[in-house]
């Protein structure tokens, strides 16, 4: 499943995922959300060591979920599909083996901030504004804005944005640790590429394992992290090599 409005490219060790829907401020509809899981799988299976996530244009990184896409849904459909599918896509992004650098090259609101929260590093351009306005529309930040975002940014900050309507400038977001770096307008991608080069110069295995351990501390996919770490150890063991050799020898014996 693919969507041309989510453009994935891989150039050596650096992958780039661009949200190409500037006429809608890079808002996500159902088809785009559905495309996130297979796109993340493609990144996982590529030679990339790091992923840059950016929106097209300079007005909006991502305006969140397209209101027209969800406003006509009934309560059951909204919960079963829009919310669950959003979680599946965002979880896949947050749990990528490769580090993710988000370039907030414009406003980052609602689901856009939930998307940015999936990244390991956030670079904001100076004109960006950041907030969670969902409750003003009568809904909640349903793509883990009250969960992953609260774990990564702190629950009180999420309260201030989602309940009390605070919206922050890029510089305020930096002071509040919502973003990790602020650059001038138009300089976000270059800054991300510089940072990606630093990541790519490091051991891919060590970076992947370190990210997994940090995710586990945050409560992000703890069970899978434990299984993956244990599986990596077992896969390199002499016991496995002996067991496979014995299995092959047994399978090659002529049948009576």
Structure report:
It is a single chain. It is built from 11 helices and 10 strands. It is globular, with a radius of gyration of 20 Å. By secondary structure, it is of the alpha/beta class.
Features:
single chain, 10 strands, alpha/beta, 47% helix, 6-stranded mixed sheet, 256 residues, 4-stranded mixed sheet
**Count of distinct strands:** 10
From N to C, what is the helix and strand string? Answer: EEHEEHHEEHEEHHEHEHHHH
| CA-based gyration radius | 20 Å
Q: Can you list the strand order of the major beta sheet?
A: 1-2-3-5-7-10
Write the layout of secondary structure elements.
Layout: E1 6-11, E2 14-19, H1 30-44, E3 50-55, E4 60-62, H2 67-70, H3 75-94, E5 100-104, E6 107-109, H4 111-116, E7 121-125, E8 129-131, H5 148-153, H6 155-162, E9 168-169, H7 170-175, E10 181-183, H8 188-200, H9 204-217, H10 222-235, H11 238-252
Parallel strand pairs: 2-3, 3-5, 4-6, 5-7, 6-8, 7-10
Antiparallel strand pairs: 1-2, 8-9
Short description:
With 256 residues, the chain is an alpha/beta fold. The protein contains eleven helices and ten strands.
């Amino acid at each position: 499943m693919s969507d041309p409005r989510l453009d994935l490219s891989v150039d050596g060790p650096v992958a780039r995922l661009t949200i190409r829907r500037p006429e809608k401020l890079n808002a996500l509809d159902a088809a785009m959300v559905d495309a996130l899981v297979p796109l993340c799988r493609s990144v996982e299976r590529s030679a990339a060591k790091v992923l840059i996530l950016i929106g097209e244009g300079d007005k909006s990184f991502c305006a969140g979920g397209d209101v027209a896409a969800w406003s006509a849904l009934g309560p059951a459909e909204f919960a079963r599909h829009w919310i669950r599918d959003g979680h599946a896509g965002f979880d896949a992004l947050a749990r990528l083996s490769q580090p993710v650098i988000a370039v907030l090259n414009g406003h980052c609101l609602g689901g856009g901030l939930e998307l940015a929260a999936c990244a390991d590093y956030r670079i904001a351009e100076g004109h960006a504004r950041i907030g969670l306005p969902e409750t003003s529309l009568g809904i909640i930040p349903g793509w883990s804005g009250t969960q992953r975002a609260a774990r990564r940014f702190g629950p009180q900050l999420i309260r201030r944005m989602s309940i009390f309507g605070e919206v922050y400038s890029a510089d305020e977001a930096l002071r509040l640790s919502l973003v990790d770096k602020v650059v001038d307008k138009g300089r976000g991608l270059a800054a991300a590429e510089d940072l990606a080069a630093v990541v790519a110069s490091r051991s891919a295995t060590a970076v992947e394992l370190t990210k997994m351990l940090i995710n586990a501390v945050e409560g992000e996919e703890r069970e899978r992290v434990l299984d993956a770490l244990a599986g990596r150890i077992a896969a390199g063991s002499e016991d496995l090599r002996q067991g496979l050799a014995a299995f092959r020898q047994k399978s090659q014996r002529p049948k009576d």
